[in-house]
Amino acid sequence: xxxxxxxxxxxxxxxxxxxxxxxxxxxxxxxxxxxxxxxxxxxxxxxxxxxxxxxxxxxxxxxxxxxxxxxxxxxxxxxxxxxxxxxxxxxxxxxxxxxxxxxxxxxxxxxxxxxxxxxxxxxxxxxxxxxxxxxxxxxxxxxxxxxxxxxxxxxxxxxxxxxxxxxxxxxxxxxxxxxxxxxxxxxxxxxxxxxxxxxxxxxxxxxxxxxxxxxxxxxxxxxxxxxxxxxxxxxxxxxxxxxxxxxxxxxxxxxxxxxxxxxxxxxxxxxxxxxxxxxxxxxxxxxxxxxxxxxxxxxxxxxxxxxxxxxxxxxxxxxxxxxxxxxxxxxxxxxxxxxxxxxxxxxxxxxxxxxxxxxxxxxxxxxxxxxxxxxxxxxxxxxxxxxxxxxxxxxxxxxxxxxxxxxxxxxxxxxxxxxxxxxxxxxxxxxxxxxxxxxxxxxxxxxxxxxxxxxxxxxxxxxxxxxxxxxxxxxxxxxxxxxxxxxxxxxxxxxxxxx
Length: 499
Prior knowledge:
Strand content: under 5%
Structural class: mainly alpha
Number of strands: 0
Low-confidence stretches: 1-5, 78-87, 293-302
CATH superfamily of the largest domain: MFS general substrate transporter like domains
CATH architecture of the largest domain: Up-down Bundle
Order of helices and strands: HHHHHHHHHHHHHHHHHHHH
Radius of gyration: 23 Å
């Protein structure tokens, strides 16, 4: 593995041995899956054989070895140079081939990352049929994944600020490979536990990617590139999950969606060889080790009260997004059918939200980069709020006819624009020393809204649509007001960059 993360022979051998151990651990689970071919790849209630138990042990040991290999080697240089670092620096005036290549690599990485949790929606029907559990019980799987994603966003953010952006991406990829064994778990509750680990790995990569991009992209291109990479990665992940599900599930059953974590996780590890460490992080690490002062130059107001208010506004906006995406949109079809609407076309729009996200991501990137980061975020909140108000109006009008296509489309476009801008905005506004953990916190808040919604599903306490819409409108209004009052606009500047 090339690059400045694996700084010495100890690191290289430990990481390589960890990768081999995790891969072998997954492979030892495959014979039981293959032997179940004549039963439609159904493994429910089958006992685990010794090979599977040894495989699980190898995965635990392998992840530990890989993590050890990614720790800094005290005998290695503090901030060694790396081919491409000089070409990938925020201070560059123009976009180079190295920058474009990194964007392509990170889009592919995020597509793989987003595909993991997106696959949950496609495996739930198969889990219900094979394990014979109710919909309320099977909701524990996405609930567990969202809890893992929220925790992973924070934990990976802290790790990225301590050990580097690239190291956290690599260990997340290693965990992806390990969670492949979900596809061979005979017990439903083992799957729930593995969903937690899968979510923990997936939840951390997105904020760390934004932190890295914010520190390597040229100032003039930084804003739109962050939004475009994140938006294309998210939309592409959902499209890839749906396409692979349609192609492979009829042949191999729902378990194949988890087993795909093995090849895709290894692809992520391979891509790590083309991802440099942030030059600003390396300079900070070197200065900290030498005891030199670290200059911090934050854009706009960086007072403690303003920073706290800005963080609170971003957190409320992110949490509200999660409540809409994982709650209101899931509950909307049943509510509209109960009100007498023709839900056929509406359901088709909801199922095609990933396709709608593609042009929305491009439009959000243009506005974010050419107009204003701050006001693009506020505009996305306003569009989402308008969509929610429209849905609330449709729900309140009894006996209506027709299809609420435009209203639902406005809500989806607003949601896609919001998630495409809130994390890049966070990455650009936090100081270098806390950028990854700050962005990770905001990312965790997007999952927390989903955790609340899924818990309501499990408890059978889904609130009326009017109540959910009211909470969402108040939350978006509060978040918008705080961003307008305390949010900075980082165009041409970056908080805490070390020159």
